[in-house]
Amino acid sequence: MKVSIDFDITPEELRKLFGLPDVEGFQQQLMEDLRERVASGAEGYDPVKLFQPYISGSLASWDLFQKFLVNATNAAEKSSKTTTRK
Q1: What is the secondary structure of 18-83 as a DSSP string?
Q2: What Pfam families does this protein's entry cite (predicted)?
Q3: If you compute the radius of gyration of the chain from its CA atoms, what whole number of angstroms results?
Q4: What angle do CA 41, 46, 26 make, to 5 degrees?
């Protein structure tokens, strides 16, 4: 048996239904900031510098995640070496 349900709902209504915050104002402010930066630095436009404030936190999180994986791998290797010696 196959059952399908279709909902005719807007993204705003869905967001409210799930209790998610309305980030439209934040997105508009972010786009205005990006437009201003692009317009002010059109000659020496550098996309990396443009997005640096927004991605620096995510890069730090990625680095932390990589360190976590390395430590977990090292711990697993040490654990397997001690169990094979017994």
Answers
A1: HT----HHHHHHHHHHHHHHHHHTSTT--HHHHHHHHHHHHHHHHHHHHHHHHHHHHHHHHHHHHH
A2: DUF6489 (PF20099)
A3: 24
A4: 75
Region for residue 35 given its phi and psi (left: phi exceeds 0; alpha: psi -120 to 50; beta: otherwise): alpha
Distance (Å, whole) CA 1 – CA 10: 29
Q: Residue 63's pLDDT is what?
A: 80
User: What's the Cα-to-Cα distance from 52 to each of 12, 38, 43, 56, 64, rounded to whole Å?
Assistant: 30, 13, 18, 6, 18
pTM for the whole structure = 0.37
